[in-house]
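// run 5 | inverse folding | seed 20
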C-alpha cells in the first residue's frame, strides 16, 4: 500500500472562466456538490481568501481545510486539507479559458496517508478512480451552469 500519491485530471467545462472558477470556492461548491456544507471557522462569512479555515463532514469523516493560495485574477486556488484519522493533502484547481470559450480546469490532489486507514484510501484512489471522480464533477458543474444560464441567474461571487 502506498503512503503518498499525486493525481491530476483536466476537464473542459461549458461556461466562461470567470463564471466557472468561483464554483471551486467553498461557497461555490454548495451549488453543485450534494451534501457540501462547509462550516466556516475563520472568516465566518465564508469569503474565500488565503488563510480562511473551514470544516466539512462527509459520512463519518471530518476534514479540516485551509486556503493556502488564493489567486482569483489568475483563476487558481490551493487548499490544504487534513482528515485526522486518515490523510493529509493538498488540492489545487487552476482554470483557464478554453479555445471554444469554455473553461479548462485542472484539478490536482496530493495525499499523504497518516495511518492504515489513509493507506487504504490512497490505494483505492487509482488514476482511473480519480479521473472518474473529476469527470463526475464535470457532469454536475455543466448541469448547474446550463440550468443557471437558462434561469438567467446572476451570482455575487466572493
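// decoded
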Amino acid at each position: 500500500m502506498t503512503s503518498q500519491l499525486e493525481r491530476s485530471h483536466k476537464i473542459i467545462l461549458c461556461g466562461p472562466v470567470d463564471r466557472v472558477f468561483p464554483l471551486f470556492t467553498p461557497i461555490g461548491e454548495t451549488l453543485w456538490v450534494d451534501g457540501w456544507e462547509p462550516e466556516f471557522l475563520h472568516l465566518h462569512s465564508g469569503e474565500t481568501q488565503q488563510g480562511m479555515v473551514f470544516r466539512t463532514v462527509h459520512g463519518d469523516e471530518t476534514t479540516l481545510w485551509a486556503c493556502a493560495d488564493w489567486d482569483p485574477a489568475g483563476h487558481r486556488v490551493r487548499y490544504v486539507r487534513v482528515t485526522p484519522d486518515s490523510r493529509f493533502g493538498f488540492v489545487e484547481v487552476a482554470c483557464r479559458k478554453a479555445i471554444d470559450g469554455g473553461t479548462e480546469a485542472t484539478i490536482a490532489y496530493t495525499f499523504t496517508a497518516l495511518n492504515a486507514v489513509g493507506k487504504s484510501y490512497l490505494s483505492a484512489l487509482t488514476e482511473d478512480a480519480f479521473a472518474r471522480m473529476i469527470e463526475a464533477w464535470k457532469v454536475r458543474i455543466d448541469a448547474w451552469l446550463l440550468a443557471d444560464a437558462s434561469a438567467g441567474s446572476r451570482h455575487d461571487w466572493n
